[in-house]
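Need tokens for this chain, all 623 residues.
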Amino acid sequence: MPDMGPWGLGLDQTAAGSAVGRSKPASEPPHTGRAGMPATACNINIGLLGHVDAGKTALAYALTFGTYCGQPSLAPVTSTAAFDKHPESKARGITLDLGFSAFQVPKELVSPEFEAAGISKVQITLVDCPGHASLVKTVLGGAQIIDAMILVIDAAKGFQTQTSECLIIAEITRKTIIVALNKVDLFPEAEREARISKMSQRITKTLEAAGFPNVPIIPVCTKPLEPTAKLTQDADPTGTSDGVQTTASSAGGDGWYECNARWMNIEALLRGVMDSVCVPRRSTQKPFLCMVDHCFAIKGQGTVLTGTVLEGSTKVGDVIEIVSLSENRKIKSMQSFKKPVTTVAQGDRVGICVTKLEPSLVERGMLAAPGSVIFAHAALATAKRIRYFKPEIASKTKIHVTIGHETALATITFLKALTPIEDDFDFQQEYQYEPLLPDHREAPGQTTNRYSVLLEFDKPIACPKNSLFITSKLDDDNHAGACRIAFHGRVQHAMADPNYKEQLAKMLRVYKLKEKVGTIDRVVDERMLIGAKMFKKETNLELFVGMKVVLGSSHEGTIESGFGQSGKFRVRFATALPESLVRPAKATKNPAGRREAASGQEDDQRTLRLTFKKAVYQDRIYQ
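Here are the structure tokens for all 623 residues:
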């Protein structure tokens, strides 16, 4: 049996509009250019995810500066949040927020697929995600802005709790995965090859069980192999060494090799990335949508909101909406990794400068074309359970819901459709109330999910149509080793009206299936009987007149009216009742002379069952 990590692995919508992995070519040509990059250039967003202290930030260092090596044309760029520059991150020694850095892929590493698409330059933007259990909300947000994922695994420890959570996030978002098996330098040199092989086999089995076959596993070392090497100020285009240890080749020659020799297999890892990802499909046809992760003021300029464009495009001078504030602002200027740009489109990393905005009001959130994103009080969405989440997921309970970078508590109600769910929520269909969300698995290439969920948020949340949401139990023990990600889906219908329940009463047809059981009080004739013990004496029997009841296993009759004041009722049958009920057999005696009671089978023949539907959002019952 494969090694499945802390709780066993294996499940199932990409960042909006992007497509990575070996899929069919897009129907429209890929968008690859923006004002700051030529039309023959392409930006790919790669996330680094894994357990805390697996070496993600050190790997971001190595990848970012390993491509530079004194070549000005390949000079990398880092954001203010890159490489744990924040004082608190330095003090605690862990990544606390998303970090961003970008570099150009050396031409010799650009795969033929990109060249065939007319792309001569590829820029990679690294998204360094925190690994600490308490920061899973940040990871969930970061996972939704990337095109592919480098899963960083400590070679000595293998799959750990947060590694497994990151793999589940990759399954949910359907990201391409490349594994960086880090810290292999900790293995004694004589045992290194054997131990790398053994760990790679274990990881491969786990990945295959999770639906990720043929994932490249690259052993790497992000600690400099030559401790005496130092990064000179001239070799660091950012002007901040921050412990990055690399030098340019002073003797000319192959700058990549000279620099990359300071780390182990960084070139091989980058080759693995380029061989695994496809040319991203980018579209400018949808309304502009940007996920914001940082916001700060620049004296004399205005307020800068940095983020990743998920859909559409925008340009300097356009009016955009700050969704969380429901306020519009005109774009004053834009930059992409410190280069001024006039337009940005899906997949681009951008800083947007606006005026008259207090930065403390916007920590994270969304920018959008005005009026295109609903600030929702409730939403209807598809629902798919994570099978590694062990506790029951019950209707009418609360759970954390993450959409983009925002997380809010929501009360959940599960619904089951009669037919498979399509892209839009079908208000013409009838739905059955489900007390629990079951583990529903789909065969590859099939869409047979029939489960939906009503999300009722404790506070309004930005909710773009068709946006991915992920639910989690963040109040569970961070260190318990159990899966905290419960279920996921896509928003189909968002409701901005605080009085959304009135809308639900008019539009949503949900019922609870109810059953009442009674028995025969007496038989009137061969087609009518009096029933009892099904209703209380105060029940309004008029509500049930005309409903079908079943006698025994299959004999169907209709409630005709009430009978007396004690809850009894008349039932008429279209066909004659069994003769055994109309003319009961005489009771027999056992050998001891005691009279036998009616058998269990005879009792069942005298049982009346009424199955009906009770509307959840309307005051009515029906069949």
